[in-house]
Each structure stands twice: as structure tokens, then as C-alpha cells.
Design brief:
Length: 275
């Protein structure tokens, strides 16, 4: 697996697969091992997908300074990867919390970013879920057999319980459009866990939104996303003048798994300048 040394000497790893122009993919979490992105529903048949293992995650090194793990600071790592790949401009796809890194990079260096795809983003410059919407999305799944245990896990976490692996596993069905065998396998995929301090460090740079006046942006939301909802995606799309919002009716937080054909079609056409 290839790697590069970022601005502060931290060694960061990445992997790539596919054919076509590079598309740098940023993972969510924060801190989720980038390998969960897989082929992004088969997008690698059309683009070379380059998955960055963010600092302190996956195979990348722990930095000496935890402050370098804020999403604002991690924008510099994306710039270093672009230079390492020898690209003047880079198309970006970012999932969930990774969307904060991508938006910050595009705001600071718009001339270095081609097109930007934000998949189920958490917000503009912080987490921005609408709790009422999330409650409604979850309540809409009450007829499914897994619902009682998932709802109980959600209540425990809301009351301050530690997010143990067991509780998170019980809550997992809310993240998916369909809790089927594929979703179960993806949820159970063995990945390198992030350090326990990373989440707090990542969000320490939360602040005011920064509109992207010149960047073409595609924002994708899942109508059944019981993790973050659609409200953050709507805020993101409203923030950026050249953004377009698509809500996938059968998707949860990972639409490339729930609706891979629709996902790939939307992203492919947008990156080709046809959407």
C-alpha cells in the first residue's frame, strides 16, 4: 500500500483501485478505516478511487500533535496527497464527517478542487442533525423486527450510556435503508478502530460555514438515514451556490450499498459534467 509524508512528518497511507481519472475519497466516522468505502458501489469501474487513510486511522500513523486531527487541519493532508499524486486539481468524494474536511479544503484552495461530491454529510462546519427529523425517520421503521432492540439502544445512548460495541451493533439497523445480509456484513466488517480521543479532536475546529461560490457540488442524502438524517445535507446544499441535492428514497447513511446503481449513475454523470 502506498504512502506519503504529510506537512508535519506524519506518514499517511492510501490505496487505489479502478480505472480512469483519479477520485480522492475521504472517509467518515470520524476515524473510520477508509477501507469500509469499498469500491463505492462499483464507481471504480469508471474512476480510479484513491482512498485516503486519514491521520490516526486505518494504516496511517498517529501524529505527534492531536490538534492536527481537527477536520480543518486535515484539509492540509488532502492538499499534500494531491501534490503527491502529481495533480493540479483533484475531484473529491467525501462521506459523512469527511465532508467537513472536503468543504474546508475547497474553501481554502478552490483552484485545487475540481468537482466535489458530499455523501450523507454531517453538516457545513460542524454536526448539524435535526433531532426531530431523526426521531421521525427512526419511528418510521417501527414495523421492522429489529426495531425494539435498536430503539432501546438509541434511548440508552441518548441518556449518556457509553457507546459500547454491543450498543452500537444494536443501533446499526437505523443506518441502513434495508437491514439485509449485505448491511449486516458491512456493519460487521473488521476494521482498525480509531483512538478514543479522535472524535473530540476532530470536531474541535467546528465553526461558521464557508460557502463555495465557484465549486460544483453534488450533495447526496439518504431518506432513511437514521444516523444523521437529511437535514445536514439540505443545509450543505443551500450553503453552496453551485450545489445540487439528491435524496435517495431507499438509502440510509451509505447509499453506495443501499442503492449502488443509482449512486454510481448520479456520481458518474456529475463528475463527467453532465449533472
Amino acid at each position: 500500500m502506498p504512502h506519503f509524508t504529510s506537512y508535519d512528518g506524519t506518514r499517511l497511507w492510501y490505496d487505489s483501485a479502478g480505472d480512469g481519472p483519479p477520485l480522492v475519497a475521504l472517509a467518515g466516522g470520524p476515524g473510520t478505516d477508509a477501507r469500509y468505502l469499498g469500491t463505492l458501489g462499483g464507481l471504480d469501474a469508471h474512476r480510479t478511487v484513491v482512498r485516503l487513510h486519514a491521520r490516526a486511522t486505518g494504516r496511517s500513523d498517529l501524529p505527534g500533535d492531536r490538534a492536527s486531527c481537527t477536520f480543518a487541519a486535515q484539509a492540509r493532508d488532502v492538499a499534500e496527497l494531491r501534490r503527491h499524486l502529481g495533480l493540479d486539481r483533484v475531484d473529491l468524494l467525501a462521506h459523512s464527517a469527511g465532508s467537513l474536511v472536503a468543504q474546508r479544503y475547497a474553501a481554502e484552495a478552490p483552484e485545487e478542487v475540481g468537482r466535489l461530491v458530499l455523501v450523507t454529510p454531517v453538516g457545513r462546519a460542524a454536526r448539524e442533525p435535526d433531532e426531530a427529523e431523526l426521531a421521525a425517520i427512526r419511528a418510521g421503521r417501527a414495523g421492522e423486527d429489529w426495531y425494539p432492540r435498536a430503539a432501546a439502544a438509541g434511548r440508552k445512548l441518548a441518556e449518556g450510556a457509553d457507546p459500547t460495541p454491543q450498543l452500537l451493533a444494536e443501533l446499526a439497523p437505523f443506518n441502513w435503508g434495508t437491514w439485509n445480509g449485505t448491511a449486516r456484513r458491512e456493519s460487521a466488517r473488521p476494521l482498525v478502530p480509531p483512538p478514543p480521543w479522535l472524535r473530540e479532536a476532530f470536531y474541535a475546529s467546528a465553526g461558521s460555514p464557508a460557502p463555495l461560490p465557484t465549486t460544483e457540488v453534488l450533495v447526496l442524502a439518504g431518506a432513511l438515514d437514521g444516523l444523521i438524517g437529511t437535514a445536514p445535507a439540505r443545509l450543505v446544499a443551500d450553503c453552496h451556490p453551485r450545489a445540487r441535492l439528491e435524496v435517495l428514497a431507499g438509502s440510509g447513511h451509505r447509499p453506495w450499498i443501499d442503492e449502488p446503481g443509482r449512486f454510481v449513475s448520479l456520481v458518474r454523470e456529475f463528475l463527467a459534467g453532465r449533472g
